[in-house]
Batch of 4 targets.
Target 1
Amino acid sequence: MESKPLVSILIPAYNRPHYLRLALESAIHQTYPNIEIIICDDSTDMGVWVMMQPYLAQYPHIKYVKNDTVLFVKNWNKCYELSSGEYVNYLMDDDLFHPEKIERMMACYLEKPDVALVTSYRQLIDGSGNERSAVYATRRLYNETTVLNGIDFGNDILSDGHNVIGEPTTVLFRKKDLKEPFGILSGRQFTTLNDLATWLSLLVRGNAVYLPEPLSYFRIHFGQNQSTLGVSSFADWSELTIAAREAGFLQDSDRYKAALELQLNRLAEDKMLPSFSEYVPKINEQQKKIEAIISDL
């Protein structure tokens, strides 16, 4: 019997052994038969290391590395570099996989070789694992399995200004299709939108498949790492729009202009928030940059 392609599940860990245990269990119990699990531990204490020891003794397909220094975003790249799989799926250490996630998504690749990424509906959960109602960005896009043209899908996302593809946990992709490190589009590293930057990089190269089943669970809770990134990365959406144009999206000037104007409006709203007060001069600079681009169209 021919073996199925190896899938690498990559878990960047940081100071959350309780949630990591749940995430790891959801990876271990995948129905897909050929996986490896890579965990790179960026923690500032030994809690994750202690939690991992029984798993390392029991499961030889788990690789664990404790970083000597905190790598932040580079920890994602370290996981990727250590992986051996033909296909890759990140799993955030506070999220969960449905048991059939990898199996269902790999079936799409085996049936449709022109696919560049596979995503699905993702179920929001709270810190205790209780299901939460969908928000606009996490709504179910289709009620049946749907193949989407990569460029058209990317254009729609940029025009709407929401990451409807999902967080890193949501997407399975083929390793050879990722030409730049995770989070980079058109040579630019993104922080709060590192996932969407990567999805756009993949969509340039092929179609997407959307599955309507909730194959991943995105946890919303206090203490998430991204909660402190949002303020300092206010410009990510506008910069991503610019980088996406360079990558091959929004080639219609009117649509590009509309996408930039959407981000101008967001920046104007940001300036009104007390939490953004110290960033007003930088927001003003970003607005001027966008206005200059629009005037040249």
Note: DSSP finds ten helices and eleven strands in the chain.
Target 2
Amino acid sequence: MDVLTPEIRGPRPPATAATTAREKAADLWRLLRPQQWVKNVFVVPIGMLGVTAWNTAALDLAWALALFIAGSSAVYVVNDIIDRDADRLHPVKRSRPVASGRVPVSAAVVLAVALLAGVGLLMALRPIVDSWPVVAYLLLNVGYSFGLKRIAVLDIAIVAGGFALRYLQGSIAAEGEPSVLLAASVFAACMMFAAGKRRHEIGLADTRHRSALAGYSVPFLDQLIGLAAVTTLLTYALHVNEIFSPGASGVFVLLSAVLVAGLVVRYLQLVLVKRQGGDPSKDIASDRVTIVVGIVTGVCLVVGTVLP
């Protein structure tokens, strides 16, 4: 064929039923936001700190993880249904399955109901009182979805509170002793992450997708990020002082405090210097320094818990 002669193509073959089914299944899977499950994997296991019988606690931890994965996915689906019009104004969120119209609202509702049914079945496996953190999480997010997300500061406080509840769920499941100081440190750290995300969103050309942004400014968020960072370090240091005991375990626990301080400083650098923060999970997972220091911190915490 002459190179100057355009290639003649026939009409594109219609999508088969199998292809369409796969695409719909893929969109339903995206609606669950599996990339966000890593948050549960990182936070829920913190509840195992201080637990000595790890062989039995591991099964309890798996239950707590499944509970919060199903619960958080249900919340994501409900949020996508309610926020579909606002999401269409966002440069990234407009491509979400419900906002783009690829998943009908009716299908999303069925998926949310199925996930909530799964939460109920998981709760039935243990005494109902053991599941109070996930129930509190769901109730908080009902309020968030139906109006509280429009109130500046309260919106990120609810998000951060959800992570403190994840920690408490892991601790209760593993039959450990929840630490108020550690829960406060988790809450403060997540306030810092959420404030960093709002700081990034203020810089977007169109902020109509999130009405709470009207209650924020960059200087205010910088102060809030700093306050949350200091609170994270202070409460964690007090927690270390609470659990410290002389010996090899104490050395690793003290080292974890130094490493946590390094992680906080690194996150501040990512947000305030490198202008990141729009997706805390992605930013942290793609930063080599954070990954290495985070792994070493986790090892120190585990060793400090296991050693006498």
Note: Residues 1-13 have pLDDT under 50 and may be disordered.
Target 3
Amino acid sequence: MSIALSAESTIDLPKELLSQFQIVTVPFTLTMGEKTGLDGEVTPDELFAFTDKTGKLAKTSAVNQFQFEEHFRALLKDHDSLIHISLSAELSSAYQNAVNASQEDEFKGKVFVIDSRSLSTGIALLAIYARKLIDQGGKVEEIVKKVEARIPFDQASFSLESVNYLYKGGRCSYLAMIGANILRLKPEIYVKEGKMVPGKKYRGNMATVVMEYVEDTLNMFNHPDLENVFITYSTVSDGLVDQIKARLKKAGFKNIMVTKAGGTISCHCGPHCLGILYINDGAH
């Protein structure tokens, strides 16, 4: 049985990795004033420039049910079934829209939608695991169960330069934003039960903060599956990624993949956002 694998553009993978793992994406839509474009075509730099100029965030629109139906229909022309791994239902309506599409008569028993309870390359980690199981010849229902079993261990977190973008996006209160700016705090956010929640707060220059965040994350989530890890960022200073790669290599990770966050994720996190993401179930 031929099984297709898909996700929304919020998986934050470049074309090379999408091709390598045979993942097909369907894009979110981004609107900056009167200009509208697709996630993947609109760059984070364009989004940041729009916010700097207007003081407003670009608007992100989830994939709607009709778009999912078209996406599923196209993939099922060449496959018997399809596994779609979606951005956390706590963060977007995309998951429910995908579920609604999958319940149409033509897709019943063929399309299986998974709520990743994650974002960005946290979704990618699950998709890569699904691809491995597909290539091993697993049955679609068994693959879905195995992927869902790893979701609670999907460690997704980021270090932010400021909370300004979180405030503009309604994910941070005014008082918290003012307090963080006055104290020059650089917060960590991580995904817990599908939601973005605040973590530790750091002080200092961004390079020092990021390395402290990496160390703290490795200490807190200290039972990793060492097969794959992502370094995902919106913007980053020269040389910092190499330092992080060296630290992750020392920790024993085998495949260290570096990706740039797409427009939808960058729009909510802002510039100078960087995270390390891996599945924290080393006994798996």
Note: The CA atoms of residues 62 and 94 lie 5 Å apart.
Target 4
Amino acid sequence: FTGKALYTGMLNEEGGVIDDLIVYKMEGWYRTVVNCGTREKDLAWMNKQIEAFDATLTERPELAMVAVQGPNAIEKVKQVRSEQADLISELKVFQGLPVGEWFYARTGYTGEDGLEIIVPAAEVAEFWDALIAAGVAPTGLGARDTLRLEAGMNLYGNDMDDSISPLQAGMGWTIAWEPADRDFIGRKALEAQKAAGVPSKLVGIVLETRGVMRSHQKVVVEGIGEGEITSGTFSPTLQHSIAMARVPYDTGSECNIEMRGKLIPARVVKMPFVRNGKKVFE
């Protein structure tokens, strides 16, 4: 259907993740939303690849983006943008539709329902002020980071990068292996990694005692090997620390975290930790 969104990885020839992004399938064209911090290398890679195709790539630096997330987000945006209320109401989860230069997408990076809205940069300040006036609270990157981590969502540069494959980053579900002759960039490298045995995996870790796990702390898995915390924080919803870690592939349900020279027992769990404000792991 028009506007269907897909979360995926953009891979290099070695199967490493150049970036993770969302692609919207429009009528005769595609809209991609990439990470701001990887803009230059993403554009360079896309422009290099597009030379082999009869297609054009257009950057839109004159557009801004605002994410409104949470259980009341959609109603608040409909209140502020009442002329588009019907279109917003009809959006399926993971769908985005344009209205002129505006674009409303029922996507997000928080584990909550809500919208990501592309707005002409010249109009974004007015839109922001209208949201504030409607009672929407501005949220900083630190708060956003706790939400995405509770939701088990990767942060590029922390949880994966150019040297890490989707199979090592909890992104195996994003790979379309069929049809078998679909020769996407990085496929041969991923197939070789699968055949040889994926050396590591990304897991969720919960620390239900005192302490807060942080990036780069060592994870010790008794009898198997060592890994590393890639993202860690204190979860406001759960009231204890949660983390993502890259650990040896054979890691089971228990591990130890090296904190201040001591090994602290922790549990390995299936992510996400939280969805729509509720604990979901066992």
Note: The chain has six helices and 15 strands.
